[in-house]
Amino acid sequence: MRLLADWGTTNRRAWLVGEDGEVLAKHADGRGTASIGPGEWPAAYAELEAKLGGAKPRVALLAGMVGSNRGWSEAPYLPCPAGADALAAGLHWVVPGKVAIVPGLSTMNPSADVMRGEEVQALGAAAAGLTPADGLTCHPGTHTKWVRLQGGRIAGFRTVMTGEIFGLLRSHSILADLLESEPEPGVAFRAGVDHGFEKADLTAELFGIRARVLLGAAPREEAGAYASGLLIGADLAVGLAGAKDARIHVIGRSDLALLFAAALEHRGREAIRVDGDAAALAGLRRIEEMRP
Amino acid sequence: MRLLADWGTTNRRAWLVGEDGEVLAKHADGRGTASIGPGEWPAAYAELEAKLGGAKPRVALLAGMVGSNRGWSEAPYLPCPAGADALAAGLHWVVPGKVAIVPGLSTMNPSADVMRGEEVQALGAAAAGLTPADGLTCHPGTHTKWVRLQGGRIAGFRTVMTGEIFGLLRSHSILADLLESEPEPGVAFRAGVDHGFEKADLTAELFGIRARVLLGAAPREEAGAYASGLLIGADLAVGLAGAKDARIHVIGRSDLALLFAAALEHRGREAIRVDGDAAALAGLRRIEEMRP
């Protein structure tokens, strides 16, 4: 019996998996790394075992921000290109022989970047046949990750702070009152996507949203969707730079993934949605199978 | 005796000016519009008269966010092109014959935009000979304003949210701990300016700053200056778009104006600093002279 977990900043998802690979139990909650203090990790892990029914797994693999400097223990980044074999060989044991953290990845391609968690989803999706072994995956979230797969390995990736910046604007900026409603992928969203994708004036165009509402030149109720489209369009311009892929696989959280898929389709790419939990589970299984 | 005031969101600056134009008293404090509630305006204005010595001015002109929907009373925006004569003809009287608010400006050139306060500085600088009647002025602040002057009138302008977004990143983002120190216009700042000016990947490159520090590929203590340069470089790319001006006049707050001037010089333009208070006072005097 193995315990496999995707343990992020905000949430954790875990599975208890039998010796033949069958899922015996699963659990998800809001006990992300941000809610756990130094010294609380063994107890937080024990709580996770209890939530999964209390059985003692032979081994546990934990992926995501649990391996960051704000997590249980810092697992070094492995350089790209890297496959599941490299992650399996680089496991960082916090309880020797019993509980290991999956390392994150670093890249210099196309520029310096780091990742913890999405690499397991991307490799898992490819291993499970949910995506091809060669292609581009898009992981929307607080930080969007664009992952380039080649031969089932991760060749490089790029992070864009779209989700975090949208959240900052919505919570704290002069645009806050315009961004309250949940963005829908309609006409205003698509207009924002086009502007963000084609023009390099993001920090000016964001103010233009407010100016148009004040001048009666655009309806107030469309401002949030346009702003979301604008930021996602700028995100796509980075993620798709130089990419000829006709199909992009969008992995992860459903509401944001829906917006990214709509933006990709609008920009002429086929967007295929992949369940993030299924991808993470497949990746963790694969790494567990390959460990020395 | 006239009372002239530049009354912004955070600060207010006021002058008591004699019949021959001489400054009899001046005062500045932090009683910006954000600190004054509805119904408190007459008292806040009376307090300002008292701070200037208690003399009763014949007339008072107030410019800036005091005329916004969060100020004393909303003064409509006047369309560009507009000069001091148009502002003088459009005064919005809150105490008839006694206290007036200077209207803001709106433009559709190059896109929908609004402004309250900087128009008085730009027109005042030109009227006082601090800038030529034809040129581009840059007003750094929470929101940068780039103002195009033609024949001593404002032809159009553009707003960029650089200061606000830098503040959000510094206060609330994953980059917060990297942005604590005050940015200096050195090598890292200039590298950021070049990247922001030349490349359209702002929301990705911001995360790259963090990645490079985590990977030991850039020194932590340079991250803040690079981030400041990056945002200011992107700002310049908007403000200088299509502008052939060899000289740009930078009007306003000294610490930010210093960074914008350094960025402009680095990008091959001559940057001439102009005192924002002197420009505001000159603009208010000019409008008062021209009022019907």
Description:
The structure is a homodimer of 292-residue chains. Chain A is α/β, with parallel strands linked by helices and 292 residues long. Chain A has nine helices and 14 strands. Chain A has helices spanning 41-51, 84-89, 118-127, 162-172, 187-198, 202-214, 223-239, 254-266, 276-290; strands at 2-7, 12-17, 23-29, 59-63, 78-79, 92-95, 99-101, 105-107, 113-115, 135-139, 144-150, 153-160, 247-251, 270-274. A six-stranded mixed beta sheet of chain A has the order 3-2-1-4-7-6, with helices on both faces. A five-stranded mixed beta sheet of chain A has the order 12-11-10-13-14, with helices on both faces. In chain A, strands 5-8-9 form a three-stranded mixed beta sheet, with no helix packed on it. In chain A, a hairpin with a 5-residue loop joins strand 8 (105-107) and strand 9 (113-115). In chain A, helix 3 packs across helix 9 and helix 6 packs antiparallel against helix 7 (223-239). The mean pLDDT of chain A is 96. The A-B interface holds A 77, 106, 108, 111-114, 143, 158-162, 164-165, 168-169, 171-174, 199-208, 210-212, 214-215, 217-218, 231, 234-235, 237-238, 241 and B 77, 106, 108, 111-114, 143, 158-162, 164-165, 168-169, 171-174, 199-208, 210-212, 214-215, 217-218, 231, 234-235, 237-238, 241.
Itemize the secondary structure elements and their pairings:
The structure is a homodimer of 292-residue chains.
Chain A: E1 2-7, E2 12-17, E3 23-29, H1 41-51, E4 59-63, E5 78-79, H2 84-89, E6 92-95, E7 99-101, E8 105-107, E9 113-115, H3 118-127, E10 135-139, E11 144-150, E12 153-160, H4 162-172, H5 187-198, H6 202-214, H7 223-239, E13 247-251, H8 254-266, E14 270-274, H9 276-290
Helix pairs in contact in A: 3-9, 5-7, 6-7, 7-8
